Amino acid sequence: MNAYVSEAGLPLSSPLLSVKGVTLEYRAPGRVVRATQNVSFDVWESDRFILLGASGCGKSTLLKAVGGFIPPREGRILLDGQPVQGPGPDRVVVFQEFDQLPPWKTVRENVAFPVRVSGRLGRKEAAERADHYLEKVGLSRFADAYPNTLSGGMKQRVAIARALAMEPRVLLMDEPFAALDALTRRKMQEELLALWEDVRFTLLFVTHSIEEALVVGNRIALLSPHPGRMRAEINSHEWDLHSGGSPEFQAAANRIHRLLFDEAGAGDGVQE
Fold first, then answer.
1. What is the pTM of this model?
2. What PANTHER family does this protein map onto (predicted)?
3. Looking at the domain 17-90+169-261, which fold is it?
4. Which of 10, 11, 66, 253 gets the most CB atoms within 10 Å of its CB?
């Protein structure tokens, strides 16, 4: 296991989130499907941790389990050392479908609403927090607009602001940019990184794109499909985050591709 240090250079004694030997199953018509098999990984505070793999590797199911929506068949999921036993405001999910914003609420009301209904803040305080996070995602001047006037990328920024307004321990993102066009998707990736630099939230992010994993993440878990197993974990010293065309970035992308798709060359549990 690699050693982890805080922003101040001090060693971190324990992870924020631990997934320990987790096997997940779900029911399909006439059968039970095993989504993951004995998956383990740790996420430290302020990590940008990526679950990467092809369709059928169980990465979205794992995210739902961390969110508390699916109980493990085997293994444990711990947050701050305590078992995850259901959904909670300490874990907030941003999904791919950005058209989930109630159209009758303004942007500010959409961001403030979950904080209000959680009982954590009153109306005035929730609106102030909404304005704070709308400023973080660059949408302050659209606070009084309605969702139908926004582009897809703007709607997803509202969804991110709404999630961060809950100030969760872990922000969970399930292929949040997959429905966007390529240019908007890259812009959203860059904006997410800039937001992380400002807020330093802890991120667990699902994608099937190798390039997106390398752009967004500082740690990447590679999952093999049917059922999902840990194939390898790589860390950000492997690539240059700021240059998708750098030799380090391309070498890391090639290595990930081999680990994911070259069955003979990949072994379970590899850590680089």
1. 0.87
2. ABC TRANSPORTER ATP-BINDING PROTEIN, TAURINE IMPORT ATP-BINDING PROTEIN-RELATED
3. Rossmann fold (3.40.50)
4. 66
Q: How far apart are CA 203 and CA 129, in angstroms?
A: 20
Residues of the chain with pLDDT > 70, as a percent, come to 88
Which sequence spans correspond to the domains of the chain?
17-90+169-261, 100-167
pLDDT higher than threshold 80 for residue 102: yes
The CA–CA distances, whole Å, from 73 to 23, 166, 222, 230 equal 5, 29, 21, 17
Asked if the model's pLDDT at residue 74 lies above 70, the reply is yes
Burial of 272 (0-12, 13-18, 19+ CB in 10 A): middle
Sign of CA dihedral 172, 174, 175, 176: negative
Mention every residue, 6+ apart, whose C-beta is less than 8 A from residue 230. 39, 40, 41, 221, 222, 223, 268, 269
**Which of 4, 61, 5, 12 minimizes the C-alpha distance to 37?**
61
Q: Which residue has the higher pLDDT, 97 or 217?
A: 217
